[in-house]
Specification:
The chain is an alpha+beta fold. The protein is 32% helix and 19% strand. InterPro entries: FAD-dep_OxRdtase_2_FAD-bd, FAD/NAD-bd_sf, Fum_R/Succ_DH_flav-like_C_sf, Fum_Rdtase/Succ_DH_flav-like_C, NadB, Succ_DH/fumarate_Rdtase_cat_sf.
Length: 538
């Protein structure tokens, strides 16, 4: 049902541009990888909007790394494995916790200004972390500060060319080798960009859901185009919902950082009762999936659309200093974080799954790499530990560049052919309406709580939207919808397959975790279908 290419185009007739390394997407993964690659190569960064439009800039809490003398990589590893609920690759996590500190030093060297207290990095603690190991910047604007620093460095770099407002429609392959990408310019013209290596840094799938903390650009483009090209995609059933997004009339679903709970905030239902003791011994600092489902349970029990986040018992000075942006944002809606309980509810936040990679970020397609949220490195397992995402991007971005150094030159001009499809002449109609319908379907059938009947119904109704794949499409919003539909189908199929509850995947008809049968990955491939990848006990 999902075609190899989204458009019919004679590739051999298109103009061709040659670059050493192609980076698709911005954010911390794209920027960091491009800067590291530019030390040796000419790099083309392609972003469908601008360098400042990515999930990274919205990251409030910070970046997790072993910095404190009281902390150890072993502690960080154990916390990550615990949150990942048995599906992490211990080897990948070991890489993360041992190389994350060097990555932070790289960010500082690239101009990132993390908060400092008494001459030392100011460290905070977040949910499911046993130690204070979260670096932050400007209180609660860590992501924005990192993007600011890296963007300035990338733009000033003569070896990095940045294409804003360009859309990568599909990857171009010769057999099982990625040789570049099919790109559409702002004026609608198309061309092929060829490269020694192509790196997907295109972010996650937050726009699959009606309520999300993600920006409009998070439409799963990289995951979808990699799947169409024949890459293995893994763990798509594990969608992390952030427990606390602002839920207030007239306000978008603004993220209220986990760090607020890390600094002592309580969760209360609409009756004013603290409730987390009923659900987990770590109370408000339990893993995100536990907290999110606990909030939904309280909302259902009290027939409410939200619960309250209460940090009024902490000093007003601390709250304003530590969370200046959250404080100011809430204030614009008449909510004072220091004196008011803030209404919050879960919202789609992070995709743990993505394009399957090895420890060097390389996918099952040669010369194609994935970094950041669009990748599945094995670090996050069934549930990402807070603030590990920014660490993952820099650790594996560095490894990707080291692997690119070892690639042999492209010896001959690749042979590429476009699969011809019988597409209808008329372009797809009412994409905005179809996108909203898709989001509502995903909330209803593949959200925080799932069951077989709902997931089957979801697949059936998503299938009715598949005319996009047979239509002549030319616009960014049409490509995005096709990519969202691809990811929606993959997520729902994987969720139906996994007959257990683990981490961020919760099945009402299979409420227990089943390590004997399900300690394995669900892997999806366009031609081979659905397979399973067993995890060996260490």
């Amino acid at each position: 049902m999902i075609p190899r290419y989204l458009v019919d185009e004679q590739l051999e007739e298109l103009p061709v541009l040659h670059k050493d390394v192609i980076v698709i997407g911005a954010g911390i993964a794209g920027l960091f990888t491009a800067i590291k690659a530019s030390e040796r190569y000419d790099v083309l960064m392609i972003t469908k909007k601008s360098l400042l439009d990515s999930n990274t800039r919205y990251a409030q809490g910070g970046i997790a790394a072993v910095i404190s003398e009281d902390d150890k990589p072993e502690y960080h590893l154990q916390d990550t494995l615990f949150a990942g609920a048995g599906l992490c690759s211990e080897e990948a996590v070991d890489v993360l916790v041992h190389e994350g500190t060097k990555g932070v030093q790289d960010l500082v060297g690239m101009g990132t200004k993390f908060d400092v207290e008494n001459g030392e990095f100011a460290l905070t603690k977040e949910g499911a972390h046993s130690q204070r190991r979260i670096l932050h910047a400007n209180g609660d604007a860590t992501g924005y500060e990192i993007v600011r620093a890296l963007s300035e460095k990338a733009v000033a770099n003569p070896r990095i060319e940045v294409w804003d407002d360009h859309f990568v429609i599909d990857l171009v392959t010769d057999g099982n080798v990625c040789v570049g990408a099919l790109v559409q310019k702002p004026d609608g013209q198309r061309l092929i960009v060829r490269g020694k290596a192509t790196v997907l840094c295109s972010g996650g799938t937050g726009q699959l859901y009606r309520y999300t903390t993600n920006p409009e650009v998070a439409t799963g483009d990289g995951i979808a185009m990699a799947y169409r090209a024949g890459a293995e995609v893994r763990d798509m059933e594990f969608v992390q919902f952030h427990p606390t997004s602002l839920c207030y009339p007239g306000a978008p679903r603004f993220l209220i950082s986990e760090a607020v709970r890390g600094e002592g905030a309580y969760l209360r239902n609409i009756r004013g009762e603290r409730f987390m003791a009923k659900y987990h011994e770590q109370l408000e600092l339990a893993p995100r999936d536990v907290v999110a489902r606990a909030i939904v349970s309280e909302m259902e029990e009290t027939k409410s659309t939200f619960v309250f986040l209460d940090v009024t018992h902490e000093s007003a000075e601390m709250v304003k200093h530590r969370f200046p942006n959250i404080y100011q944002y809430c204030l614009t809606y008449g909510l004072d974080l220091t004196t008011d309980w803030i209404p919050v509810a879960p919202a789609a936040h992070y995709m743990m799954g993505g394009v399957s990679t090895d420890l060097n970020g390389e996918t099952s397609i040669s010369r194609l790499f994935a970094c950041g949220e669009c990748s599945s490195t094995g670090v996050h397992g069934a549930n990402r530990l807070a603030s590990n995402s920014l660490s993952e991007a820099i650790v594996f971005g560095r490894r990707i560049v080291e692997r690119i150094h070892l690639l042999a030159p492209m010896e001959e001009e690749p042979r590429v052919r476009m699969e011809s499809l019988s597409r209808t002449e008329a372009p797809i109609q009412a994409v905005v309406e179809k996108r909203l319908k898709l989001q509502k379907l995903m909330v209803r059938y593949a959200g925080l709580k799932r069951n077989a009947n709902g997931l089957r119904k979801g697949l059936e109704e998503l299938g009715r939207l598949s005319s996009i794949f047979r239509s002549v499409i030319t616009k960014r919003e049409e490509y995005e919808f096709a990519n969202l539909l691809t990811c929606a189908l993959l997520t729902t199929e994987a969720a139906l397959t996994r007959e257990e509850s683990r981490g961020a995947h919760s099945r009402e008809d299979f409420p227990d975790r089943d390590d004997e049968i399900w300690r394995k990955h669900v892997v999806l491939h366009r031609e081979h279908g659905l397979t399973e990848e067993r995890i060996e006990y260490v």
